[in-house]
Design goal:
With about 450 residues, this protein is mainly alpha-helical. The chain has 19 helices and no strands. The longest helix is centred in the N-terminal third of the chain and has 36 residues, at about 90-125.
């Protein structure tokens, strides 16, 4: 089954990681373009209150979606390991179970989003002047959860077997559709934030349809989607949950801590909310790079671990760390001096721009403290080691962040004190990950478990 031309399993590691990374990076760029275009169109054609309303929903959306995205990640890791081990039967069962799980997850997300969106925004102390608009945006947005989950699972399957190009093509098509629909619904038809949400849903339907069509058209491959095979395999589901549930819990706790951050920022008023919202669109350059490199090393480690190439896993991690550090320094050099100009692309409000420049000048230099956390956790996940990394993240990032926000910030309330929770927790968690990874005992445990495991 294994493709002899699979660059992740043989040949130069730097070239393999970059060739796999670049399509994911461009794909993530276009995916972020969904939200960035929403923000730009809303900010320019509706106003600051609408801009703040859309931005205030991000942490809550991440919380609910993160619960199920972890399960998609679990399925992708299992598939990467089975593909590396040349077990076509296991890949087939994992693919079909994963897609059924995505459908149920999307339906559950829609129901949860419709029920709790407004109460959650109230609990987050969303300013009264944007509460109704934000709640309306979420009610529409959550109607698109089934296609979003199918897309996430489908592209996770393709990336797990080493195909990072076609997910890029699907996102490019969906992103251009989103841009056109945003302009039509918001700028021409004047539907406001509801139009931005509707444009996002329709573009997600397009990307999900293209992904499923690709899987269904992959005849002869172990990841071929055959509709009559769609069912939940109990053993596969347990394997997905073993890896995916800790990942989902980690992602959810990240989101909870970010909700508390958003709640703290909401207390500083609409200008602060708008500035923080725009910052989230600007710093995507860093986060999409980290996400893409982390996804690359997770798949690389998963396939090579499945193939028993353990030394290649370690060498790949070192190469990935070096590449990521270089990219991060380059991003810092671009974003820091460009802060004011970038904010002017999104808003003409002088107060929003001034607040945003302060945010960027404080946080951008701290990016370098995060990369060890993300790359090492990606390697560990790829090899199936999720418990200790989850604990490190839960206590080192999420727990400490919440303590800082609830115990320290009230004693010296300011935007900068809220922002400080990020570099402090990033640096501590990176140190903890390095201390866990470097001795190598985790890998010996995973090798032992691999030899004892029954293939799911």
């Amino acid at each position: 089954m294994r493709n002899s031309k699979n660059i992740l399993l043989s040949g130069g590691i730097t070239k393999a990681l970059l060739l796999y990374f670049l399509p994911i990076w461009f794909g993530t760029l276009f995916q972020q373009l969904y939200n960035t275009v929403d923000t730009w169109v809303v900010g320019r054609f509706v106003g600051t209150q609408a801009l703040a309303a859309v931005g205030s929903t991000g942490a809550f959306v991440s919380l609910l979606v993160g619960l199920f995205t972890g399960l998609c990640n679990g399925a992708g890791i299992l598939i990467a390991q089975s593909y590396g081990a040349a077990d076509a039967g296991a890949v087939d069962r994992q693919v079909h179970t994963g897609l059924v799980l995505a459908i149920f997850s999307g339906a559950a997300l829609t129901a949860a989003g419709l029920l709790v969106s407004r109460p959650a925004l109230v609990l987050m102390h969303t300013p009264a002047d944007i509460l109704d608009t934000a709640a309306g945006y979420l009610r529409i947005y959550f109607l698109g959860m089934v296609p979003q989950m199918l897309y996430n699972m489908g592209t996770g399957i393709l990336r797990a077997v080493g195909d990072s190009k076609r997910p890029l093509y699907f996102l490019v098509a969906a992103s251009f559709a989103n841009i056109v629909l945003d302009l039509v619904f918001v700028a021409v038809l004047h539907w406001g934030v509801a139009g931005a949400a509707a444009a996002t849903i329709l573009s997600q339907v397009l990307s999900a349809g293209l992904t499923l069509r690709c899987l269904a058209g992959s005849q002869g491959m172990p990841w071929h989607l055959a509709w009559h095979k769609l069912r939940l395999d109990g053993r596969v589901l347990r394997g997905i949950c073993r890896i995916g549930v800790p990942s989902a819990a980690q992602g959810s706790l990240y989101s909870i801590s970010n909700i508390i951050v958003q709640s703290s920022i909401n207390g500083f008023g609409t200008t602060a909310v708008a500035a923080w919202s725009v910052y989230g669109k600007i710093d995507f350059l860093f986060w999409m790079t980290l996400f893409s490199m982390s996804t690359s090393i997770t798949t690389f480690a998963g396939q090579n671990f499945g193939a028993g190439q353990y030394d290649r896993v370690r060498r790949g991690t070192r190469v990935c760390m070096g590449l990521t550090a270089g990219m991060t320094l380059a991003i810092m050099a671009v974003l820091y001096p460009s802060a004011e100009g970038l904010y002017r692309l999104f808003s003409s409000d002088a107060a929003v721009i001034a607040q945003g420049v302060q945010i960027m000048h404080f946080l951008v230099p701290a990016y370098i403290t995060y990369i060890t956390l993300e790359i090492l956790s990606g390697t560990l996940r790829g090899c199936g080691d999720v418990k200790v990394p989850t604990l490190i993240t839960v206590f080192g990032v999420c727990g400490l962040r919440v303590v800082w926000l609830l115990a320290v910030v009230p004693k010296a309330p300011s935007m900068m004190m809220v922002e400080a929770c990020y570099p402090i927790t990033w640096a501590l968690s990176s140190v903890l990950f390095a201390a866990y990874y470097l001795p190598g005992r985790w890998l010996q445990r995973r090798i032992k478990a691999q030899k004892e495991a029954i293939t799911v």
